[in-house]
Specification:
194 residues; 4 helices; mainly alpha; single chain
Length: 194
């Protein structure tokens, strides 16, 4: 299965339409992630009140503390863009919100990966012991790290390399890297990636 390295662009979409669309897509993705992290956070908050939690060793307690704190950080990062969107409504700062929400989404993703790694290690350690917990937690960390961060970064790098080797800097949509369009409309800057 081959993945296309050519970024999708809509030459009919102006800058405002693109920002509106991208912000809507980003907020929808954060809503999905936020629901999942909140369920995991709620589960973690109940653990200290379960029978037998006082018997766990210091390593498991540190895994628990790390999971709870990073779940809180992930929740805050995933919820912040929607809250900021409400506060900054009709301020004309939608593109600022888009870039900020993107950064918060990445930070929230890192925190969620840590939460899931610690939570999985915590449960597996309670059921089987430290070595299986270490292996499973490492697997969760590796898989989330690869799928959520490394693979997209490699795709970005490969996509940038494809654009660099285009030759004269012209792109399929008629825009040039200097922001001008071959058709003379000067709308090239509107089509840049965020």
């Amino acid at each position: 299965m081959s993945e296309s390295m050519e970024p999708l662009r809509n030459p009919e979409e102006n800058r405002k339409e693109r920002v509106d669309r991208e912000l809507g897509e980003l907020l929808q993705g954060l809503r999905v992630a936020s629901t999942g992290v909140q369920v995991l956070f709620a589960f973690l908050l109940t653990l200290p009140f379960s029978a037998g939690f006082e018997k766990v060793d210091s390593t498991v307690r540190w895994m628990f503390y790390t999971a709870v704190v990073t779940a809180a950080v992930a929740s805050i990062c995933f919820i912040a863009p929607a809250t900021q969107h409400r506060i900054m409504f009709r301020s004309g700062l939608k593109e600022v919100m888009l870039h900020r929400a993107n950064r918060l989404g990445v930070i929230g993703g890192i925190a969620l990966a840590i939460t899931m790694t610690c939570s999985t290690g915590l449960v597996v350690e309670a059921l089987t012991g430290p070595w299986p917990a270490t292996v499973v937690a490492a697997g969760v960390a590796g898989l989330s790290g690869w799928l959520w961060f490394v693979q997209p970064l490699l795709s970005l790098r490969d996509g940038a390399a494809v654009e660099e080797h285009d030759g004269d800097g012209a792109r399929e949509d008629g825009a040039r890297e200097d922001g001008a369009r071959e058709d003379g409309t000067g709308r090239g800057r509107d089509l840049e990636r965020t």
